[in-house]
Amino acid sequence: MSVAIILFFVAIAIGVSIYRERKAVPATESIKAKLSSVLQGFFVHPGHSWVRVTEPSLVAVGADEFTKSVFGSVERITLPEVGSMIQQGGKAWGLKRGLRHLVQTAPISGRVVEVNQALYENPEILKEKSPDRNWILKVQPIGLNRQLRNLIGGWTLSRWNQAVKEQLASILGSAEFAVLQDGGELVSDLGDHLTEEQWNKVTKEFFATNRN
Questions:
Q1: What is the pLDDT of residue 7?
Q2: 140 and 113 in contact (C-beta within 8 Å)?
Q3: 3-state SS class at 111
Q4: H-type helices in 25-108, by residue range?
Q5: pLDDT at position 55, please?
Q6: Using N-to-C axis directions, what is the helix angle for 154-171 and 196-206, rounded to 10°?
C-alpha cells in the first residue's frame, strides 16, 4: 500500500474522530479537555519520527522503535537550537555512532522550545520505552490539525508498522542474523549487526533525508 493511500485513510479517520469528539464534548470544558482522543495519541511520520500531542500548543517528538532498532547503539545525538524552526519533512536531528550518521525527518513544523538535555548527555535513554523519557524535542507547532493529516496514527499505524517490518525483513532476507524476534517484533540494536552495504540499503529505503 502506498504512502499516499495510507495518508488518505488517516485523514478520513482523523476527520471522523474529531467530528465525534466535538459532538460529545460540552462547549464549556477547558481547551485541554476538548482535545479529541486522536489528538491525545501518537502519530508517526513516514520518516520514522513520532509526535505526541500533550497540549494544543505543545508536542513532544522523537525517534520511533523502528529507527532505534535499525540504527542500533547511539553514541551522540545532534540537536537543533532552542528557538529554531523545524519544517515537517525536513531535517530535525542526527544520530551518530562512529562513522555512521542518520539524519532524521521532522514529523511536524514549529518552533523548538526545549531539547532533552538528559538524552543529549546520555543517549542510552533513547532505548527506553517511556515517551516521558525518550522524547528528543518539544515543539510549539504551526497549524497542528493540518499537519496531523500528513501523519499516521490509530489502526492505520499498526498496519503500517507491520508492513514496514515485513519490508525490512525482505530487504535483509540474506542476513546471517535474526531480524525479527518470536512474535514479530524487530530485534533490538539490529543496526549493530548491519554491514555498511546493508545499512545503505536501509537508509535508502526508509529514511528520505539521507538520500543523495
A1: 47
A2: yes
A3: strand
A4: 31-34, 65-71
A5: 86
A6: 150
Looking at residue 180, the DSSP 8-state letter turns out to be B
Looking at residue 36, its pLDDT comes to: 44
Residues contacting 64, CB < 8 A, separation 6+: 44, 48, 49, 50
Q: Is the predicted pLDDT of residue 12 greater than 80, yes or no?
A: no
Are the C-beta atoms of residues 82 and 119 closer than 8 Å to each other? no
Q: Which of 73, 74, 48 is nearest to 61 (CA)?
A: 48
Q: Report residue 128 as a C-alpha cell.
A: 527506553
DSSP helix/strand/coil, 202: helix
Which residue ranges make up each domain of the chain? 3-155
Closest residue by Cα to residue 39 from 141, 153, 131, 130: 153
- Of 3, 1, 6, 48, the closest CA to residue 191 belongs to 48
Say whether pLDDT at 88 is over 50: yes
Tens digits of residue pLDDT in 133-174: 999 999 999 999 999 999 999 999 999 999 999 999 888 886
pTM of the model: 0.78
- CATH code that applies to domain 3-155: 2.40.50.100
Show Cβ contacts of residue 153 under 8 Å, excluding neighbours closer than 6 positions: 10, 13, 14, 38, 41, 42, 43, 44
* pLDDT for position 42: 87
